Amino acid sequence: MVNIGIIGCGRLGTSIAKGWLRRSRHTIHGYDVSPERLAAAEALGIVKHSSLQSLLSQSEVIVVAVKPKSIAEVAEEGAALFQGKLVVSPAALVSLEELQQLFKGAHVVKCMLNIAAEVGESMILYCSSPSCSTHSIDLFEQLFSELGSCIRAAEHLVDLATFIVGCGPACIAYLVEAIAEAGVCIGLPKALSIKLVQQTLKGTAALLQQYSPKEVISKVATPGGVTEQILGRFEEEKLKEILRKSIAETVLTLQQ
Ligand SMILES: NC(=O)c1ccc[n+]([C@@H]2O[C@H](COP(=O)([O-])OP(=O)(O)OC[C@H]3O[C@@H](n4cnc5c(N)ncnc54)[C@H](OP(=O)(O)O)[C@@H]3O)[C@@H](O)[C@H]2O)c1
Q1: Measured in angstroms, how far is the CA atom of residue 252 from the centroid of ligand 1?
Q2: With 90 as the cut, is the pLDDT of residue 37 above it?
Q3: Residue 187 pLDDT > 90, yes or no?
């Protein structure tokens, strides 16, 4: 059992907490500047702290789940209380060097994950600062593998994972919504259409653990059949290109 402190009980912080609380093995402590978010966190079973110092004094592992712009403020406020602890940052595109400078004397791990942590199915890419001990890396792996699948990677790959792993659930949910809307257009009741797509997504995700995307497509799209016609329309409308360009061009713009 580990005492884990989550600073920032917003979208990601709450998902991570829920992921650990499912197994009820650890005590999850929470602190947020927003009293409403803190009250909502407490209702989930998170131990509420009214100050950062109180949370830090009771937590062995700290997850800093605030927006990148608020990290320096958190580091300054907690100062020496971070020292010697495993400090995990899921903040998009904040460098390990910057994190290590902010959390002096802490064992810093930078990672990218997503809200599927809530159901134990996130992808988690991580890297660590040179001063991070083997014990802290082992502890990170032990705790975060309860939230999904962990892979250690070079820092630039963790940064790139932001756009696939971090943003991924929203992109995929958008496609699910579009297919469910098509179901409504052809006469399915909305709730049923969403349910049909959800279960089809679940089945396809399981198939994709065994087969490549191309193999799944070829198993369904028999020559001259209706799937082939639908996929042909996708190609005509350049759907794949739209998706590829939307992600890649956004990333390139951010990198400039
Ligand atoms: N959301 C995702 O799916 C996702 C995925 C991957 C990575 N991330 C990363 O996770 C981090 C959090 O993102 P999020 O989407 O969860 O943000 P969010 O929903 O805005 O949650 C952040 C929370 O932290 C609070 N906060 C701000 N300053 C604070 C401080 N000094 N001390 C304590 N709490 C403070 C915010 O309160 P106020 O709103 O009042 O400022 C808010 O409740 C970001 O760095 C983001 O890059 C997010």
Answers
A1: 24
A2: yes
A3: yes
Q: Which residues pair with 86 in a beta bridge?
A: 61, 107
Ligand 1 atom at shortest distance from the alpha carbon of 34: 40
Distance 194 CA to ligand 1 centre (A): 29
Q: Which atom of ligand 1 is nearest to the CA of 162?
A: 6
In whole angstroms, give the CA distance from residue 14 to residue 62: 14
User: Which amino acids bring their CB within 6 angstroms of ligand 1?
Assistant: 7-8, 10-13, 31-34, 37, 65-68, 70, 73-74, 90-92, 114-115, 166
Picking from 134, 133, 165, 171, the residue whose alpha carbon sits closest to that of residue 151 is 165
Q: Which domains does the chain have, with CATH numbers?
A: 3-154 (3.40.50.720), 168-255 (1.10.3730.10)
Looking at residue 256, its pLDDT comes to 78
Question: Please, what is the average pLDDT of the chain?
Answer: 97
- Separation between Cα atoms, residue 112 and residue 92, nearest integer Å: 7
**So what's the pLDDT on residue 254?**
86
Write the pLDDT tens digit of every residue in 245-254: 999 999 989 8
| Separation of alpha carbons 3 and 55, rounded Å | 10
Q: Is the model more confident about 254 or about 179?
A: 179
Question: In a mutational test of the pocket of ligand 1, which residue from 16, 33, 103 has the highest number of ligand atoms less than 8 Å from its CB?
Answer: 33
